[in-house]
Amino acid sequence: MLPNALQRSASDHIPVLAEEVRELLAVQPGDTVVDGTFGAGGHSSLLVTDLGGEGKLIAIDRDPSVRTYFDRFKTSTSVQARLLRGEFSIVLGQLAANDVQADAILLDLGVSSMQLDRPERGFSYAADAPLDMRMDGSAELSARELVNEADERELTLIFRRFGEERYAKQIARAIVRRRAERPFERTGDLVETIKHAIPTPARFGDGHPAKRVFQALRIAVNDELAALEAALPAAVRMLRPGGRLALISFHSLEDRIVKRYFREESRGCTCPPDFPICVCGHEPILRELTRKPVRPSPRELESNPRAASAKLRVAVKEGCS
Ligand SMILES: C[S@@+](CC[C@H](N)C(=O)[O-])C[C@H]1O[C@@H](n2cnc3c(N)ncnc32)[C@H](O)[C@@H]1O
After folding, report:
1. Is this prediction's pTM over 0.85?
2. Cα 166 from chain centroid?
3. How close is the Cα of 222 to the center of ligand 1, in Å?
C-alpha cells in the first residue's frame, strides 16, 4: 500500500511486478537505492518503505517531466533523496566513477503510462498527434526527423531489428513514397501509411498494425538498446559486493540483452573445455537470483494489462558485503 501523499491519480503509471521487485531487491534500512527509471516513482515509493527512514534514494530519469512526481515523492519520505536528470547509462557511469556505491539498483525499462497517455508526446498509435517519441524533449532526434530523413534501407533495418516487423521493407518503401509528396508531421498519417502498406489480412492479426513500427521508432529515437548495453556494466560497477540489480524488460530485444549479460557475468572460466589449465582468468562477478524471468501474476494482469509482457531478472554482485 502506498503512503497517502503518494496515492496515484487515475492517469499515473502503475509500478509493474512491484512486490516481486521489493522481495528480490531485499532493501535493508540504511541502504543506498538507485531507481534508474524513476517515472512516477511507484517503485521508489515502495523501496523507500524498506529503508525504514534511514539510507538514501538516488532517482534517475531522462524525462524532465518526472520532476513533479519526484517533488511529490520527496515530501512523503524522510530518507535522503535526489533526482539526477539524464540517460541512465551515463549517470550510473558517472556515479561509479565518483565512487558512489549502491546496495540495490532498479531499471524498469521503456516508457511510462504518463508518456504513452499524453498524446502530444507522440508515442501512441492510438491518438493522432505530432510525431515525436523523445523521452527527453531536448534531444536532437525525434521520430519526425527519422521518418522523414532516414533512407529506405535504414528504415527497413530499424523496423526489422527493433520491431521484428515482417513487412518492414514494404512499410519503409511506402513511407519514402508518401513523404516525397509531403513530409510526415503526425502519428495519424504514419498509421494510415503503415495500414496501407501491409496485406489486408495482416491488418487484423497480432495487435494494432502500427504497433511494431511504433515500438521500433521509439527504440531508435531514444537509442534504448545501446543505453541498456552500456548501463549494465555501469550498474555492476556501482554495486557494493552483495548488492542487487533488478531489470524489468518489456520486449524480447531487451530481455535478451539482460539475459546474455547476466549469463556471461555469472560464468567462471571461459576457456575451451580441452584446455588443461585456465588461461582466461575470468571470474564470475554476478550470481543470478532468477534463472527464469519472473512474470506478472494473473491477478496483477487483471488490474494492469500493460504489465503483460513484463519480465523481471535479478542478480547479486559476488563478493562479501
Ligand atoms: C516504465 S517507466 C518507469 C516507471 C517507474 N518504475 C514507476 O513505478 O513509476 C520508465 C521511465 O524510465 C525513463 N527512461 C527510460 N529509458 C531511460 C534511460 N535510458 N535513461 C534514463 N531514463 C530512462 C523514462 O523516461 C520513464 O520515465
Report:
1. yes
2. 24
3. 12
